[in-house]
Amino acid sequence: MHTPRDPAQRIRDTLTRLDTERDLWLSTSHPTHGPHQVPLWFAWDSAALWMCTNATSPTARNIREEPRVRLSLPDTVDVVLLQGVANLYPATEAPPKAAVFTTKFGWDPSTEETPYVYLRVEPKTVRAWRGVPELRGRVVMRGGVWVG
């Protein structure tokens, strides 16, 4: 059993995980094809998460139709769930901030033969909790503003 953290500690812990972890689950949806969930590498630039996928993937297709997404870090005990709107950028036309991804992983999607897109998600809602004692107060970001 974990000792409940105050909101400020939850935010610090969440930011540490966003800075250090490699993978997340990205959930998208399409009006006709329904929900879709994939694991992706990600990089955090202090304001947004950057991911990359093939330009013709179901993930990219879904985001073009419905840009609202949900993301989660892959730990079911130390939960971090994020919601936001995804923006797509062709890898060959990515803004400078996308370099956080290539720097972290040593891979430049713009050099691939097949076209890739960067996905940028600036969280609007973040929930973080460890077990039942932290369910109350689990929203640590609301409307894009950290609360704590």
Description:
With 148 residues, the chain is α+β, with helices and mostly antiparallel strands. It has a single domain, classed as Pnp Oxidase, Chain A, CATH 2.30.110.10. The chain contains 3 helices and 9 strands. The radius of gyration is 16 Å and the shape is globular.
Low-confidence stretches: none
Q: What structural category arises from helix and sheet content? A: alpha+beta
Total individual domains: 1
Tell me the strand percentage band: 35-45%
Radius of gyration: 16 Å
End-to-end distance: 23 Å
Reported by name, the CATH topology is: Pnp Oxidase, Chain A
Helix content: 10-25%
Number of helices: 3
Order of helices and strands: HEEEEHEEHEEE
Average predicted local confidence, pLDDT: 96
| Overall CATH architecture | Roll
Quick one: overall form?
globular
Please name the fourth-level CATH homologous superfamily: Electron Transport, Fmn-binding Protein, Chain A
CATH top level label: Mainly Beta
Q: What about the largest sheet? A: 9 strands, antiparallel
Per DSSP E runs of 2 or more residues, the count of β-strands stands at 9
Task: Write the topology of this structure.
Elements: H1 7-20, E1 23-30, E2 34-41, E3 43-44, E4 49-54, H2 58-65, E5 68-72, E6 78-90, H3 99-105, E7 116-130, E8 139-142, E9 145-146
Antiparallel strand pairs: 1-2, 1-5, 3-4, 4-7, 5-6, 6-7, 7-8, 8-9
